[in-house]
Amino acid sequence: MAAKEAIIITDKDEMRKWTRSMRGQGNTIGFVPTMGYLHQGHLSLVQDAHNQADLIVVSIYVNPGQFSPNEDLSTYPSDFQGDIEKLNSVPGGVDVVFNPKNLYDYGNSQIGNGSERNLEESEGMVVSCVEDKGMGHETWVRVEKLEKGLCGNSRPVFFRGVATVVTKLFNIVEPDVVVFGKKDYQQWRIIQRMVRDLDFGIKVIGSEIVREHDGLAMSSRNVKLSPADRQRALSISRALSRAQVEAEKGQVNCRELINTAILTISEAGGTVDYAEIVDQESLEPVETIKRPVVFCVAVWFGKVRLIDNMEIDV
């Protein structure tokens, strides 16, 4: 049986028209938002979406709204043709790949004169690449409490950009179900809360982390690791797994678990951005494990920042 070939849509209005037509025929729509350079972790999200909906839309869009000007937007890896081939190979395939060029281009040449950048320079505000380029976009979605801490500390525009672009994609794709990977744990919880608070009629599914055979969490940024750093990065999953085992044995002092994990990663050559044990729902730091928590870390190996986490249910 020949593999299903996805329809590629680049226009917002055409995307809405397709969804509404399919829903009018009684179909439910599953959605997997990505930034491309797909790996098996992304494909597992598509497979999970198949269990939830009749038709599947995957977006491929590198969102400038979640990058600061000093981050790696311009070097983010891309392989669109390879992505299409991978999606077509998934059992059941994908019905549509939504690949917009620029979701912040509103077709008004009078907007985007750089005034936002001037404001940033004068007031010391942290901006995204959208504002830095003076695109004229002014409306942002924030999940004010959950976006603080963890990745929000070192990437202050990140979750504002994620929540905004996901809102835009929801309004364009109009899905019934959306699937996010739990590797980006804070992101998943933020989208859950946003959907609840803003009354989106969308079911949010969290898909389990997919790891390489040696335990490294799959990430599009792994390709940037040197062979030596790739090997050193295995210390992340080792440290998290050890913490999980120790917690299951009765070690519930979070500071001791965190210090041991930091030592393991640091001895391997990693620079820890953060290592925190937080409540699975509120993402508030926990001192003693008495309820389900998640151990979240972000680590630099060379110029590559990796995130990972492990849920601990004791």
Give short descriptive properties of this protein:
six-stranded parallel beta sheet; 314 residues; single chain; alpha/beta
Shape: globular
> How many DSSP E strands?
9
Strand order of the largest sheet: 1-4-3-2-5-6
What class, by secondary structure content?
A: alpha/beta
Number of helices: 11
What is the N-to-C succession of helices and strands?
A: EHEHEHEHHHHEHEHHHEEE
Quaternary class: single chain
Helix content: 25-40%
Q: How big is the Rg?
A: 20 Å
Proportion of beta-strand residues: 15-25%
Low-confidence stretches at least 5 residues in length (pLDDT < 50)?
Answer: 109-123
| Major beta sheet summary | 6 strands, parallel
Taking the alpha carbons of the first and last residues, their distance comes to: 46 Å
Q: Tell me, rounded to a whole number, the average pLDDT.
A: 93
Describe what this molecule looks like in 3D.
It is a single chain. Residues 109-123 have low confidence and may be disordered. The protein is 37% helix and 18% strand. The protein contains eleven helices and nine strands. The longest helix is centred in the middle third of the chain and has 16 residues, at 158-173. The strands form two sheets. The protein has a six-stranded parallel sheet with strand order 1-4-3-2-5-6, with helices on both faces. A three-stranded antiparallel sheet has the order 7-8-9. The protein is of the alpha/beta class and 314 residues long. The relative contact order is 0.13. Helix 7 crosses helix 8 and helix 10 runs antiparallel to helix 11. It has helices spanning 12-24, 40-50, 80-89, 115-123, 129-132, 151-154, 158-173, 185-197, 227-232, 234-248, 254-267; strands at residues 7-9, 29-34, 55-60, 96-98, 177-181, 203-207, 271-279, 293-301, 304-312.
